[in-house]
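Lecture 7 notes: from sequence to structure.

We start with a single chain of 329 residues. Read the sequence below before looking at the structure.
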Amino acid sequence: MQTLTDAPKTQLPQLSHVRNPGLPLDLDWVAGVQANTSAIERRAASLGGRRSVKKEFQAAWLLKAISLIDLTTLSGDDTEGRVQRLCAKARQPVAPWMLDRLGLDGLTTGAVCVYHEMVETAVRALEGTNIPVAAVSTGFPAGLSPYRLRIAEIGESVKAGAQEIDIVISRRHVLTGNWQALYDETREMRAACGEAHMKAILATGELGTLRNVARASLVCMMAGADFIKTSTGKEAVNATLPVTLTMIRCIRDYQDRTGIKVGYKPAGGISKAKDALLYLALMKDELGHPWLQPDLFRFGASSLLGDIERQLEHYLTGHYSAANRHAMG
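Now the structure, written as tokens:
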């Protein structure tokens, strides 16, 4: 069990493994993928009763969770000031007095995630840190803008300084079973990313079945996705534990067959510290310690950080503070 002294002190966005180069589309492998929905749901439902950490152990896991957050603002009313404040929060996610009491320094979030328009602002605000900027791209959130513009948007975000690109797939390819089209599009998007790491957003709440989620996950990994991600955060249903279990078992199968590690990012609806602990426990159980590092696991969240701060303050003082004491900026 991790202790406070084991908690992360700095962020290392460099990969500790080979990037996913992808492989030719294997339709037989895709067709053979199934998902036992009832078994997956039972396994996911059992997590809350089987995994509970308290006191200093819980504090250590929550500090780990902070280091894995893609601190995000994706609103139509985003301004440079809001993004600058968010970046300041990413650099100093926990009040200095709490870090002093915990014996830590250098803790940051895993990344800052913004629209393309705000990439340059975020890059400037994060100068001197190891915190990467992630840009949502390819017609986020629906992915229905003209295809050439989606590809061009990736290039513009990379040129502006984004080190990570969160692309959205064309859901219709999944719903119609057109796996070749999904592969070809995702492969071209991966090429457009260049050295930037690509996270493929599946929008799992709109894919209909867990089998579709599993097959889409596999196709995106074959196409070279460095991460697979649940949601844009804009769908009616976003990250869930059954979807997570489905996707990470596809990641495990892909690694077993190819030797390549692919990352995972649940996004949307994860706002409570206790939920973050369940996701961390599931990742450790299913994929092991490497997937508890920011190069292979991220939370796509904004309000999650505030609740984690409240839990840490309770651990240190015995009292819960008001949520407005832990604003994002």
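Residues 4-14+23-326 form a domain with the TIM Barrel fold (CATH 3.20.20.70). Keep this in mind for problem set 3.
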